[in-house]
Amino acid sequence: MLHGSGGGGGGRRGGVGVAFVRGIPLRRAPDRLRVVMGSSRGAILSSGWLVSAVLTFGTGGAASGQSAAEPPAATPVPVAAPVGAVPPSASGPPPVSVSPALALPAPGAPVSADGQGQAPSAEDLTPLDLDALMSLRVTTASRFSDRLPDAPSIMSVVTRDELRRFGGLTLNEILQRVPGLTGSTQYFVDRSLVAARGDQTKTNGGHILFLVNGRPTREVMEGGVISDLLEAFPVDILERIEIIKGPGSVLYGSNAFSAVVNLVTRSADRTFAAVRGSIAPGGAVDTSASFAYKHGNFGAVGAAQLHQLPDWPVTYLVPPSQQNLSFAPHVPPVENVSVANRGAGAYLGLSYGGLRLMSSLTEWHSTGFIEGTVSATRLTRQFGDLGYSLAVSPSWGMSFDATITRTTFDEGPFPNVSRDSNEAILEWTNLVELGARDRLSVGVLANHLDGTELYTATVPATVTARGGRFGGALYAQVEHRLFTSLKLIGGFQTNKIGSIPLDTVPRAGAVWTPTTRASLKALYSQAFRAPSLDENLLDNPGLAGNPNLKPEKVATLDLGASFESDRAQLGIDYFHSKITNNIVNLPGPTRAVYFNLGEVIFDGVEAECKYYLSRELFLQGSALYQVNVDGQGTANVSPIPRVGFKTGASYQSRRWTASVFDVSDGPFDHYAAVNPIPGWRHIITVHVRLDVSKLLGLSKSLGLGVFGHANNLANQAIWLPSGFSSVDTVPVLQGRTVFAGLEVSLGRSAGSVGH
C-alpha cells in the first residue's frame, strides 16, 4: 500500500510492492524488491518551487541480509512507475495514472536507501534526506527503472534538489551545468545550443534528441532546431532531467546521436498553485506560474513561463568574406546591432486512469547573423502526446502513443525564409519480464514528416521546398543478468525512411556491479540522423537539396566506471565516436548542394563528482577533455573548446539557500575572427533564496519567498564561433544580469518555497 496515503504520514501495513509502466501495475513482488520499485508519488511541494517528497508503496523493510539497493539475484528488475503512476492500496481499486503527461513522477525519483521510501514530510523537506538524494533511479536508458550505476548507458541526472539549489531561468542555463555538455551557437536559426562531448558538426542541434516524459520532439525541416526548447520551455515544471551521453537511436530513433535529454515533469499528487516573478535592470523579466490538481482518478498539472533579457547593444564587424555578396544585401562593414532574447512557453498534462495527454508550446525571438546581414528570428513549437497504458499480464505492460510536433521558423529581412513542418508518430511499446534474469523493451512505430519552406521576399511567396515522407521502425533491447553482478545488453533498431533502403543500428554491452556501490560499463552503440526535408527537397537560388542523401551515422565506444557512497557519486568515462556520412553543403557551379561527405572522429574523457558534505552543504564538479579530427586529418574541426570545467557549491537550510556555479571553458583552436574570440571564459551564476513563510511562521498552506538570481556574474560578454566551418564569431551572452523576485504558493504544505 502507499505509505502516507494522500500525501500524509499514514502508518505502515504489510503488503506487496507494485511496479508500474506509465501507471500500469506490472508485477507484485516480495518485500526485498520494494526499493527497486519505489515510486516518487509524493512530489508536490510548496511553492514556485516545490521541493520533492518521496513516498513509496510496499511492505516495511528490506529483507534480512540484503542491501535494499542491491540488485536481487535471480529476480527480474521490475519496471518502474513511470509517468505519474499512483499505486493502489492492497485491497483498493485498480491503479490510477496521475499523469504520464504531467510528470513522470519518477521511476527515477529518489527513494530512501533503507527501502522504506519514506521521505520527510513536505514541511521538513529542506534539507532532503541524504539517502533519498543519493538513491537515484532512471528510466531513459532502458525504459525500465534502473539504479543509476546499473543503467545500460553513460548518464547524468539533474535532480530536483539541484534545480532548487542552483536555480536556472532557462533550460540552456541548466544544461550547461551538466557534465559533457557545452554551450554553443550558430549564425542563423539555432542561436542557442548545447553540444554533447564536443560534437557540434551541424549548424543546428540535430545531434541531440529531446524527450518530454520519454516522448520525442523533433524539428524536421532543417533537421534538429532546439533553441526554442532551450530558451522557452517552462523549467519550473521539471522534476528532473535525465541525460544519456552517447547514442540512443535503438530506443529513440533519429537525432538520438550524441545525446538524449529527457525532460521529466512533475506529477499531480495534490492540489496547489504557485506564481513567481522577477525583474532586472534594462527591462529584463522572468515570470512563471504553475499548478497541480488532483481529484479521484483525474490529475492535471501545468506551467507557463515568460523570460526576456534586455536588448543587448553590440558592434558587429562584418567579416570580409561576407561583404559585397551578389546574392545577399550589401551591408556596411560595421553595424550597430541590438540582440534580442525573448522566450515564452507553457506545458499542460492531464490524466485519467491509464489515459494521458500532454502538450507544450514554446516560442523564442532572437537575432540572426547570415552572410553579414542582421535579421530578426522567430521559432515556435507545438508538441502533443496522447497515450494509453495497460497491463497484459503481471509481467507484461504495453503502451500506445500518438505524438505530434509542429515547428515554425521566420527570419527577415534576409534571407526572407518562412518554414512550417511537422512530424506525427504512432508507437506501440512493450516492456516484458522474460523470467527471473531477462527483460525486454520492444516496439514498433510509424511516422510521417511534412513541411513547407517559403521565400517571402516575392509576392506571392515562392515555395522553395514542399513535401513529406513516411517512415517506420522496429526496435528491441534485451538485458540478461548473467550473474547477480553482471548484466549483458543487446539491441537494434531497423528503420525504413522514405525511399532510403532498410537500415539497422545495433548496440551491445555489459554492466558489471562488483558491489552495490561500484559499477563498470563497456558499451558499443550506433545511432543515426535522417536527412531533413530541406536537405532532400530544397530548391533555393543559393542552395539545393539532394534526394539521394543517406542518414548520418555515428558509432561510439564507451568505457565507464562509477562509485557511490552515502554522500558521494563519482564517475569517469572514456568515449570514442566516429561520425560518417556527415551531411554538408558544398559549392557547385551555380549554387551549393547537400552531400554526404567525410567523417569526424572524437576521443575524450569526462569525469564528474557530487558530494554532500552534510545535508546542508553540497558540492559538484566535472571536467571534459575531447579532441576531434576529420577525414583529411584536420584537428579540432568542431567549434567546441577541447577542455572544460564545471564547479558548484550550495548551502541550503530550512529557511535559506545560497549557491554559486561556474561553467568554465578553454580557448578555441584555429579560429581567426574580426569579432571577439573568447579565451578562457567563466559563466558564473549565483542563486539565493529566503523562505519568508518559515521565517515568519506562516500557515503551511501559504508559501512565500524572495530570491535573487545573477547570471554571468563575471560580466564577461560571450562571443562564440558561428557554427561548424565558422568564418567568424557572433554574440551569444551579454554581461551580468541580476534578477530579484518574489514567489507565492497556495496549497497543502506550501511552506517550503524553492525556485
Describe this structure in words.
- With 755 residues, the chain is mainly beta.
- The protein has one domain: Beta Barrel (Maltoporin, Chain A), CATH 2.40.170.
- The protein contains 7 helices and 43 strands.
- It is globular and about 65 Å long.
CATH class: Mainly Beta
- Counting structural domains, the number is 1
Number of distinct helices: 7
Q: Which outline best applies?
A: globular
Q: How would you describe the oligomerization state of the chains in this entry?
A: single chain
Into which percent range does the helicity of residues fall? under 10%
CATH superfamily descriptor: TonB-dependent receptor, beta-barrel domain
Mean pLDDT: 83
- What share of the residues does DSSP label as strand, in percent? over 45%
Distance between the termini: 32 Å
Gyration radius, rounded: 25 Å
Uncertain residue ranges: 1-128, 749-755
> Mind describing the biggest β-sheet?
22 strands, antiparallel, barrel
State the total count of DSSP E strands: 43
Known CATH architecture? Beta Barrel
